[in-house]
């Protein structure tokens, strides 16, 4: 199968030499080719350049992209899109004045989603989740990480991870699975958190490893959830199974989550709405990708991750949706990119870098996705006719994606 995209108004995120991620000032640079062509052969990018060099050999399909942009698909490195039901009632409770924390303390929040998920069959969970996955693919996502964490029993966590595995088998995009057994403390373990950690470490982890259900390990390191010591224990235990850490830190309070992540060579530390200078310093010593989740800040009306502080310190930054029923019920990366520009003062170049190559790195996919580079997967977004790429984040709430190519 050989495809030619011709007359592309602008081809975005062109990297002739492979890169792992971009950081600091380099995030403000988005290399492009104007009036371009691209050839995709058997699902891989095989050639691109200006229309002056457009090949004339025979193609199975020729797509005329006059007036439109072509770019790599979004890489969404943090989601919880496998969940059951929704938390619309809590949404209304928050409108009426309760806080996210108060709702959680009253037995709602993550525990609410866990109860519904425990009572949902694997088949029903798959059917609910696949609708969300299909929706985000149509919105331009070509790789996604999905976490467990709404099971909170061995059986229900395995159910979630098996659903993720089935999605992986049935859909053409890259899916990475993360074990988030330590997402909340189940009611039965309220006064005995250590016993729950024992269950995660001694019973859940070996089963997940045996069935090869996850590549990454996550912990909600936060006041009232799991401490730095708990996080350290889980990450240490995960090491013997080869689980790589990608953890929730600094969402509401900064308690040392960044440091424990860096200590364990976490691939990413995510949320970071609250960040201290010592956290920035710790990240500078690491290869850990900071990940911001502006959809969560928007939905909960909590601070946005201080992108400027991180980027001005020379660090990289990735953007992801956090798609979940409680704090970010949207998997729309276009909205995330737009919100990062509007609320976090990221430039369109920075936001697009953060949502493509840096997102790919935060899933270990930087060699396969995240840029227009020969040999990478031809997962592509064709936009509607636009004057410039800045119009995409500018037109917040509009869908500027015309077609998504995921082979
Ligand atoms: N913060 C922890 N976990 C999710 C939200 C969980 C929920 O409210 O269901 C998050 O990343 O925001
Ligand atoms: Zn999350």
From TrEMBL:
Record's protein name: Imidazolonepropionase
Query: Where is this protein found?
Result: Cytoplasm
Q: Give the co-factor note.
A: Binds 1 zinc or iron ion per subunit.
Record's GO cellular component terms: cytoplasm
Q: Name one GO biological process term.
A: L-histidine catabolic process to glutamate and formate
Please name the GO terms that the record assigns under molecular function: imidazolonepropionase activity; iron ion binding; zinc ion binding
Q: Which cofactor does it need?
A: Zn(2+); Fe(3+)
Q: Which protein family is named in the record? A: Belongs to the metallo-dependent hydrolases superfamily. HutI family.
The source's superkingdom equals: Bacteria
For this UniProt record, the keywords arranged alphabetically read as follows: Cytoplasm, Histidine metabolism, Hydrolase, Iron, Metal-binding, Zinc
């Amino acid at each position: 199968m050989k495809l030619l995209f011709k007359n592309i108004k602008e081809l975005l995120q062109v990297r002739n030499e492979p890169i792992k991620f971009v950081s600091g000032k380099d995030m403000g640079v988005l290399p492009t080719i104007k009036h371009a062509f691209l050839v995709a052969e058997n699902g891989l990018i095989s050639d691109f350049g200006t229309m002056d060099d457009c090949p004339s050999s025979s193609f199975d399909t020729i797509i005329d992209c006059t007036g439109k942009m072509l770019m790599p698909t979004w890489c969404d490195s943090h989601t919880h899109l496998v969940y059951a039901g929704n938390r619309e009632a809590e949404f209304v409770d928050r409108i009426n004045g309760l806080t996210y924390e108060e709702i959680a303390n009253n037995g709602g929040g993550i525990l609410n989603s866990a109860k519904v998920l425990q009572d949902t069959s694997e088949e029903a969970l798959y059917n609910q989740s696949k609708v969300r996955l299909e929706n985000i693919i149509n919105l331009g996502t070509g790789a996604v990480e999905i976490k467990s964490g709404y099971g909170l029993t061995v059986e229900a966590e395995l159910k979630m991870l098996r659903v993720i595995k089935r999605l992986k088998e049935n859909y053409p995009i890259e899916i990475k699975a993360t074990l988030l057994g330590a997402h909340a403390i189940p009611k039965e373990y309220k006064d005995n958190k250590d016993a729950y950690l024992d269950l995660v470490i001694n019973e859940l982890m070996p089963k997940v490893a045996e069935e090869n259900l996850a590549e990454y390990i996550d912990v909600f390191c936060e006041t009232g959830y799991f401490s730095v010591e708990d996080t350290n224990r889980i990450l240490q235990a995960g090491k013997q199974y080869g689980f790589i850490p990608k953890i929730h830190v600094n969402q509401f309070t900064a308690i040392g989550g960044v440091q424990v992540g860096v200590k364990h060579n976490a691939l990413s530390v995510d949320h970071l709405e609250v960040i201290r200078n010592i956290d920035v310093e710790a990240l500078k010593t690491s290869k850990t990708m900071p990940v911001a989740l502006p959809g969560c800040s928007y939905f909960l009306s909590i601070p946005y991750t201080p992108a400027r502080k991180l980027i001005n310190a020379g660090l990289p930054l990735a953007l992801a949706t956090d798609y979940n029923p409680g704090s970010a019920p949207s998997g729309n990366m276009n909205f995330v990119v737009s919100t990062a520009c509007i609320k976090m003062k990221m430039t369109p170049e920075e936001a697009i870098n953060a949502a493509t190559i840096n997102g790919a790195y935060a899933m270990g996919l930087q060699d396969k996705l995240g840029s227009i580079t020969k040999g990478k997967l031809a997962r592509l977004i064709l936009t509607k006719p636009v004057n410039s790429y800045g119009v995409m984040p500018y037109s917040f709430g509009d869908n500027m994606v015309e077609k998504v190519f995921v082979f």
